[in-house]
Amino acid sequence: MIDIGIDPKIVAGAVFLLTYGMILSNKINRTIAALAGAMLLFLFGILSGEQILQKINWEAIGLIFGMFVMVGALSESGFFRWIGLKTIRFVKFDVVKAFIMLSILSAFLSAFMDSITVLLFMSTLTIEACKLMKINPVPFIISEICSANIGGSATMMGDPPNIIIGTGCELSFLDFIANTGIVAVVVFAVNILFFYFWYRKGLKKDKVSNIHKLEGLKPEDAIKDKRLMVAGIAVFVVAVILLVFHAALHIPFAFIGIFGASLILLTGGKKMPEVIEKIDWLTLIFFAGLFIVIGGLEETGILDIVASLLIKGGSNPLAIAMVLLWVFAFLSAFVDNVPLAATMVPVIKILAATPGVGLGLNTMAWSLAIGTDIGGNATPIGASANVIGLAVAEKNGFPVSWKYYCKVGFASMIISIAAASLVIWLKYFVL
């Protein structure tokens, strides 16, 4: 280890800013940036080897790994395309009904599954269906993107920031359902109304003239491996049940994730090696490195300073909740929401333990989760779902410009966060 005679706070802060700068530059892979930051903290003696292992949120890592495996198995089986086709046939190829139902499906699936996988298949399915119906798929895809990010805020497993916030603040799956879940339902309802009125003229003009061709699309044909799909759904249901009752059963989140992954690997059949190969291992390593870099800030007391600055800015409970909601919503429009959530979890824990703040940890957690989850709707790079959905659209000949997306996305985000503010104010400060 290297002793350079500089205040550890300065070193830890500089490593954090350097790591963040590398992530934002997009010139260096974010996993490499996080690992480099972790290595520098060790080399400069900010964290020992034992402390590095302690700073990693293994609960979050284990749960995310399990979700990757289970969702990967469902994806490999053809589940997403099957359920999408079922939805389109259910609305009898009516353009307005299809627009609303596909947005609902995107939100619902993203509440329980990785939004990247959901958008990959939803956008592909949407483009295929819209080509057959001879209508513009761009409004559908943008609505699905925003719906997925809102739906992901509803549960603890719906979005990586929620897993980080939930495990870091010792919150349960049911806690999220009863809090962010309620906010998400209201916000989604407001958001889908916004999109309907935004695109209503175009949707009403579009008419499906070739229904006979669409009726030939059978959802059953989308299933690539029926056995794997049945096994995947069964295991996923078991995992959700365990998440719901984990507190009563005293089961760690990491165990649930690994248990679910093990079950599907044992029962999934011959395609399991392909599922393992397709797991986003780099993201798991990125999370681990990020936890270590944040741990450097925590160990040197920088996060205590940040918390004290927030208190000096005003100790009004409602003001703190709104700052967490709005500021981090705008930051998440341009910055990866995972580092934001990971950085702020120890900060809000310090705030909650500070006399005179008057705001509980849980309320701050809900405000932070909603802000970081929904704020990403504002720009094409605000969330991974946005990048995936728009990339699929462009690949299929339907490019969406930054100007056009931001015009719609920012309006959606502002309206959504305003609706969330109203719900949070009523639920935690009035009722």
Explain the layout of strands and helices.
Blueprint: H1 8-25, H2 30-43, H3 49-55, H4 58-77, H5 79-90, H6 95-110, H7 115-133, H8 138-152, H9 160-168, H10 173-178, H11 180-205, H12 211-214, H13 226-244, H14 246-249, H15 253-267, H16 272-277, H17 281-300, H18 302-312, H19 317-332, H20 337-352, H21 361-374, H22 384-395, H23 402-430
Helix pairs in contact: 1-2, 1-17, 2-17, 4-9, 4-13, 4-15, 4-17, 5-7, 6-7, 6-8, 6-11, 7-8, 7-22, 8-11, 8-22, 9-20, 9-21, 11-23, 13-15, 17-20, 18-20, 19-21, 19-23, 20-21, 21-23
Q: How many structural domains in the coordinates?
A: 1
Estimate percent helicity: over 70%
Summarize model confidence as the mean pLDDT: 85
Radius of gyration: 22 Å
Query: DSSP helix count?
Result: 23
Uncertain residue segments: none
Major beta sheet summary = none
How many strands appear in the DSSP assignment?
A: 0
Class inferred from helices and paired strands: mainly alpha
Strand content: under 5%
Shape verdict: globular
How does this structure look, described?
The chain is mostly helical. It is 76% helix and 0% strand. The chain has 23 helices and no strands. The protein is globular, with a radius of gyration of 22 Å.
